[in-house]
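Hey, I was hoping to borrow your eyes for a little while. No rush at all, and the record is pasted right below:
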Amino acid sequence: MSSGVVKQSHKIGVIVSVITAAVYGLYPAAARGAYADGANAIFIVLMTTSVRALLMAVFCLLKRKSLYQTQDDRKMALIGGFWQAVSVIGIIGGLAYLSGPIVMVVLFTHTLMLLFFMAWRREIKLDAVTLGSTVAALIGLTFVLDLWSAQTPSHWEGVALAFMAAIATANRLYIYGRQMTSRNPSIVGAENFIVTTGLLILIALFKTPVMPETISGWGWVVLCSLSLGTASFGMFYGIALLGSFRWSLFAKIEPIFTAIFSVLFLSEYLKGYQYVGMGLVLGSLIVYQIITHRAALKEAILEGDA
């Protein structure tokens, strides 16, 4: 593949990641609206996960793309779907003990985990720019999510569950990336989320799903489902275009959109340092893009001269 094609696919991947982050950013605000109307987290998770699986499966059906064609496809779907389910369970469990900002900051450490793991496997370079951008973006998120005003964790169970979610997220993103080196993103997404839905249904055996009480609450549920369902396509195609690590890094834009939508939909107010955090996240990603782009361009020139 020519460097021009690679560059173009990378640009498209960045655009897809930003749009997807914006769509994902709708979910937390919509979920809070559904919770306020009586729905519980179990119901929201089961509903949104089912919609994600259904939308991608129907898309594959319309495009006449077959699912689970080989034994290896089924095996990888079981592994990816399992880690997707574990990440969801970890988030739900963590939120039962800890405040949202703490759980989300711990969850987003998955980018660092993915960086170290892929560097250990020599799939990406662990250089100062990549590490510095990843850490700076994570620090920025602590301000965007207002971590410093959150209550100090007092339950080790919640911290353990949040880290379980982060580890599971790193695993599933890596597996998705490996699957899509040779397979269609929509097929990979449908296969994995069908497995995830089947596993998460088991949660209903331990805690009863509670539906919203009014039409307004159902409207929030529909928005939750459409947000995650639509964004799931962006996630799989984005990973296919950018790779697991870069996708994970750009996913840190999502809380910025969440904060903005909370202001627009829920009339919340942001503090000054939250805007500073947004600038730090965006600035670190922009610097990373500029430096890595220049490095790739220089490498392409050297290869052309060789």
Q: What stands out?
A: The CA atoms of residues 98 and 152 lie 9 Å apart.
